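We close this part of the discussion by returning to an individual protein. The amino acid sequence and the backbone structure tokens for this protein are reproduced below:
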Amino acid sequence: MIRLMQADDIDGAMRLKSVASWNQTRLDWERLLRLEPRGCFVDEREGMVAGTTTALRHGTELAWIGMVLVLPAFRRKGIARGLVQHALAWLKECGNAVIGLDATAMGYSLYQQLRFRDEDLIERWERPPVRADVEVRPSATIKLSDSLLALDRTVCGYDRSALIRDLSTDPSVECVQRTSGFAFGRPGSSAWYVGPCVAGSESDAESLLIDLLTPHGSKRVFWDFLPSSAPARRLACRLGFRPARCLTRMLRNEGGGDLRDPKRSQIYAAAGFEFG
């Protein structure tokens, strides 16, 4: 039975995430529920959460499918297909015609069947711990300026200000910002996560990311970006990161027109496979 996810389902959702060895935390599930309470779904079987998916709307311009997970014992029963179709039907009701996702190899053929088409690749790069000592940075909420929110809107080609504001008010999330851009970082279940990061130039991004990463030298770190962005790739190499995995970024456009032309070279880190 497919139904809306509730806060009480997060334990079951975390079980699915752990089986898949994904990096999301309870805070990430809570964020998705907070941002889109009508767009998070579970398939309940035998009294347990057997599958999940989430649909995050960035206004009406773009929606993002994520967290498509099914317990191994319930796979090959059409659960993932049913959940994604349910999310797509809800998004159609909301007026979202352009929908994206980051596809693993396991889910790729399903998304092709559901009329998603390849848009790009997205890679996860990893940096191992580089030193034993760590500087503790006190938690604090952040307020991004209106000019930086406008920059993000221009660079992405759609409005993800609700996500940015939510990250900004989470005391577990860190942010470095300048007039030229910003970089966020947050805890993960297996590695600290860098992103999103937007900057006016490669040198601006390098300065932001060095400041963000310096207190976390004792941690394993993940960083996701589009490999078609040569500046992000060069910067990741310089900062000691190496490729770890690759997903396919896919889009489904049901007559919604095109997104505004994004300035992808200024996007140095994605927000996460579940956020777009």
User: Anything to note?
Assistant: The first helix runs from residue 10 to 19.
